[in-house]
Amino acid sequence: xxxxxxxxxxxxxxxxxxxxxxxAVLIEGPKWCGKTSTALMASKSVIYMQNPDYSxxxxxxxxxxxxxxxxxxxxxxxxxxxxxPVLWDAVRFEVDQRAELGQFILTGSAVPVxxxxxxxxxxxxxxxxxxxxxxxxxxxxxxxISLSDLFEGRQIVENSMxxxxxxxxxxxxxxxxWPSTLKLSENAALKxxxxxxxxxxxxxxxxxxxxxxxxxxxxxxxRSLARNIxxxxxxxxxxxxxxANDAVISDKSIASYINALKxxxxxxxxxxxxxxxxxxxxxxTSEKRHFVDPSIATAVMRIKPQALLNDFEYFGFLFESxxxxxxxxxxxxxxxxxxxxxxxxxxxxxxxxxxRDGRWAAIEVKLGQKQIDxxxxxxxxxxxxxxxxxxxxxxxxxxxxxxxxxFKRPDGVWVVPIGCLRN
Length: 423
Fold this sequence. Notes:
alpha/beta
């Protein structure tokens, strides 16, 4: 089978390990993020369920004898399996029958309708999330500062230097981490994010659950999410924002539309971290609003890089969204999850990375250099209120910036440009 030109992804090793430990692997994530390309590199045969020449035949076969579609050299890739949800149960059953590992790879850019499969696949089908490319994967971060090294306490070379200028950061936010854009001209790359967002608004968000949605309401909702990006805006805030911009929508519709956007992996909010504290303090449980890629926000707002350079306040929110995407990619590759923290006293940390073994780190995101002192002070305050007997000491505290130099402050807080970070 011919292999396409490919950019290495951090998920490559995760997929390899999953195939070595499970009968099948599901790779899910937004369209155009590179799921199929990654799966192709590990597969030996493939069936494209969306191939217009054969999709009708595939669906007919799936309805009558789905096992036929599973025949082929393994690992066999079934691309966009959710078009025929019965394939999930067929794969699960076939894995049981063969009793061998690494048989199938499934890719999906939408969560199928509820109750469309008879079995969860637990124990047979491993799940793997893919997102758009991080700056390290797109070769725009030099990767000299590693999250893994910081967690392991390994020696870090200080004074690493990012080559990204503020204009570059504005551009990569608007371009996004879509693999297909990396070799395009600037104008073409920016157009790609716009085309993706228009497809979501006019087609994908309705296709996922077969419930027709008003494209203009979807557009207004996504614009409100974009205006409230990296905040804990609730449904009422979003509703009031939309109504202020002449868009009337009910709470029920907001919930329905956001759920549909989550099911196609366009919206990916950051959950709240609920640590044990030294004293009783109310912790905010609201999720932070984010798209899976910051370019979705700029595309729906029709913003280009120069506009960000003229509005540093909004630029800062989008920079946090960029860093959230990258840290999520990096954390996943080292078996970690990402949260945010905020309490009733408005003490917050933009990102909390928690590894599955319980180790954790707190991160603040600041585009400019003037806010670093305040950010570091907040991180140290957070450290002091955590019940370390239950939670353990933080592995590290970090301020991610849009600057050029990485260094460790005298108070122990790391300052790291996003252009130096990796997993």
